[in-house]
Structures are given as C-alpha cells and as structure tokens.
Write a structure and sequence with these properties.
heterodimer; A: alpha/beta; B: four-stranded mixed β-sheet
C-alpha cells in the first residue's frame, strides 16, 4: 500500500533555510544541508526546497546547493524557485533534484507545464498553487508570494487553475492555503477537499499544520497524498518519528524507517 | 571493479552516481560502447518517456551493445522498463531482454497516476539482489507505467494491483523504484547489485 508522505518544506533565502509567518517576516532556521540531513535521519519521506526570492527577483534557483543536497541525501527532493524554462529545469534536475515545482512562472505562461512534462515526463513536474479565499468566497490564485511587496492577486480561480495545470501535464499539485499558513490552526480542509475532488494526480497539503491531528485530518478527511509543513518541524514542536507513530495508530499508512 | 552509468539522457543520472559514491564506488557516466562492454557492472538509469529513451539509445548505437552484454546489468525506473519487450508508452519497441509489455496504470477513483511515493516490497522469489530485504520494507516510486507480474518478477509492490518492483532474467535486472532515493533500503539493494 502506498504510504502517505510527510514533507518538511525548507524555504531557502541567501543560502539559509528561513521561515516566515503568513509568508512574511522571515527568520533564519539553519543551513540547508544540515537541515536536509536532519530530516532524512528523522524519517522524512521527501523534502521540498523553495528558493523563495528567486521568482520575485526574476532569477532562477541557485544550483550550487542543489548539488550539495543531492550528494548527501538519499530520499527524494523537489526544488522550486523561479524555474521558467525547460533549460533551467534541466539544470536543476541534472544537479540532482528529483522534481521541479513551478508556480509564478507557470501562471505567467501556462504552456511551461506542458513543455516540462514533454521534456522530463509528468512525474518530474509539480505545480505549486498559492491560494487565498477572497471576500466573495472564491479561492483565487496568488503570484510572487515570496515577496509581500510583489505578491499579486489574480482573477484566476484556484479550482480552474488546478484543472488546467493537470490538463497541461502537472504530475503533482502542492496546494498552499495562504489563509492558514504559519498560524498552526490546521490545514484548510474545506479547500483541500474541493481541490481533491477534481485532482487526479497526487495532491500535497500545505499551510497550517500545528498539531498531529492536523496531519491525520488532512490524510483521513481530505485524502491528500502528502502533507507539507515547515515551522512545526523546524522548531521541533512536532518530531517526525512520533508523528508517524501517531498516524499509524490512527490507521494512516506511513513509512516507519 | 568498474561500474558505468549509461548516459541515455535521463535526468536522475547524477543522483544514481552520488548513491554509488556513498557506497564507495565511483561510476563513470558514458555512452561509449567499448567502455560499456568492458565494465564489470552496467547501470541503465533514466527518468522520462520510453520513446525518447529508446530513440536516444538508437542514436548512440547502444541497442545491440546493451542486448549483447553478459555482465550484471541494472535498469532503474525507466531503465528497467526499457529492458522489456514493448512499452505502451508511445507504443515503443524496447530492448526485449525481459519478455514483458509495460502498461499504464489504469486510472480509477482513489488511484492517482503517477504512482508517486513510498510503497512496500513483497518478495516473490529468492535472489541475491534481494539479500537482507525484509517483507514490507518500503522504496520510493515515481512512475505512470509498470511491468506486469511474470516469471521475471523477484519482488512486487501493490498499487491497485500487484506489479513488478524488482525483476531479473539472466544477467539483466531491474528496479522500478529509485534505489538512489530509497534511503537505507535502496542503499542495501544497490549494494547487493554491486556484489553480484
């Protein structure tokens, strides 16, 4: 049986892992390779690295640390940050990343998703979706969320964008529910369920994990394939081995290494 | 011992190479027929699609070279699928070393394609490649096509139905998952291959 995945997310800025609250006010959490190794040893199933300032600064991800991580890590990892062409994705994949995640550049030019799927296969192509509920009750996509001064609200509905991204060749969707991000009150189950209903590829929940029950709810109620979290793992508030024991006891299929 | 990684244009070559380095083996990346023939062990990695993968092997003149190898060969992920007779992916004729047809997972409710993540291995047949593998130990898979279960199957995984996770026929071996990304379990199986 396929296990549900626990995925620490490492936001990278200037060669350090950082964490903000509601995508703002970042503080340093430690070195990239050190944290990657720590999570590998604790039994993380996968890692995601977001070069959070790449897209707003109009540059691609720094590949030096991608290769350093690839040399020491023996679990899969995905890299995101300003990847806007097949050539840039190839460089990151050749440096040792298993998947690339595209977000803002895919919103600028949705055909990028199809080009990446054609070049590398859908299994390498993750589409990150930053989503926030507007006053009219609709979830809509946000762009350039790495820098609050550059973040843009789009007219595109989140559900429409997820459907389009899949049609174009997304092999996995990471749904960042910005309204719940960083506040540790639980994943946005309502939104995850709505996206799950139309998402035929793996779906990863992001934003809001604060307690072990939140992970169980995301897996058991919203049927997500993986759950991504940052601050609760970085701070040690939730230890991955204990979380996996808890989830297993709750009937969630997990990998106990 | 010389180990070569066949450069068939796959993108996971770097990570396979690093995994071998962690086991103390420095594998050369090559598309040179003589170097491949002379190696003690040959690994065919690959992420991507069957059609472009085979096209690349043909362009490099490696199809008959690979078919004629007598030393231990390991295909990883797409590399394993290329060892088979045929793939539904792009209706591609493959190397024909394992008499199987690679088929796409049937999509149905709750069964997402690609099959992506950690899944348990179930041993079907004793083989040195599986030495020390415990029932249910998990490996990391990422694929949309799979090799059915047959006489070539050493271990299965289950996704909707059992499929081949590890195969062997003569000197040709395959792992559908990514041993280079399967933590201690993957390192153990890669080490077993190096020890064949």
């Amino acid at each position: 049986m396929l296990s549900r995945r626990l995925i620490p997310c490492l936001d990278v800025r200037d060669g350090q892992v950082v964490k903000g609250v509601r995508f703002r006010d970042h503080v340093a959490m430690g070195g990239i390779v050190d944290l990657a190794l720590r999570y590998r040893d604790e039994g993380a199933d996968e890692l995601v690295f977001y070069d959070i300032t790449a897209s707003p600064e109009g540059r691609s991800v720094d590949r030096g640390w991608v290769e350093k991580v690839a040399r020491v890590i023996d679990i899969p990892f995905c890299v995101a940050g300003g990847i806007r062409s097949v050539d840039e994705a190839r460089a990151v994949l050749h440096a040792g990343a298993d998947k690339v995640s595209v977000n803002s550049p895919a919103l600028e030019r949705p055909e990028l998703i199809a080009e990446l799927a054609e070049a590398f296969g859908v299994q390498c192509v993750v589409v990150g979706v930053d989503s926030l509920r507007d006053a009219d009750g609709e979830w809509r996509v946000r762009q350039y969320t790495g820098d609050p001064s550059k973040t843009r609200a789009l007219l595109r509905r989140t559900l429409d964008w997820v459907a389009e991204a899949q049609r174009l060749g997304a092999g996995e969707i990471v749904l960042n529910c910005m309204g719940s991000d960083g506040v540790r009150q639980g994943y946005d189950l309502e939104q995850l369920k709505a996206v799950r209903a139309l998402c035929q590829v793996p779906l990863i929940a992001s934003g809001g994990a604060g307690a072990p029950e939140h992970f169980r709810d995301a897996f058991a109620d919203a049927d997500v394939d993986g759950a991504l979290a940052a601050s609760v793992f970085h701070s040690g508030a939730i230890a991955i081995p204990a979380l996996k024991q808890y989830l297993q006891a709750q009937g969630v299929a997990v990998r106990i290494p | 011992m010389t180990v070569v990684l066949v450069d068939a244009g796959g993108t996971n070559i770097g990570s396979v190479r690093y995994a071998l380095q962690r086991l103390g083996v420095d594998a050369a990346l090559t598309s040179d027929a003589a170097a491949i023939r002379a190696a003690d062990k040959v690994i065919l990695p690959g992420v991507g699609a069957a059609g472009p993968g085979m096209a690349r092997l043909r362009e490099l003149g490696l199809v008959d070279v690979l078919r004629a190898l007598s030393q231990p060969v390991l295909g990883v992920c797409l590399g394993m699928q290329l060892l088979c007779a045929h793939s539904e992916e792009g209706d591609t004729e493959c190397l024909g070393l394992i008499p199987a047809t690679v088929r796409r997972f049937a999509e149905r409710p709750g069964l997402r394609v690609p099959h992506m993540g950690w899944n348990g291995l179930s041993v079907q047949r004793e083989h040195p490649l599986l030495r020390g593998l415990n029932e249910g130990e998990q490996a990391y898979f990422v694929h949309s096509y799979a090799v059915p279960v047959g006489e070539w199957t050493l271990a299965t995984a289950d996704y909707g139905a059992p499929f081949s996770a590890v195969v062997a026929r003569g000197n040709f071996h395959g792992m559908q998952f990514h041993p280079e990304r399967s933590a201690a379990v993957g390192a153990k199986l890669l080490k077993n291959f190096l020890d064949l």
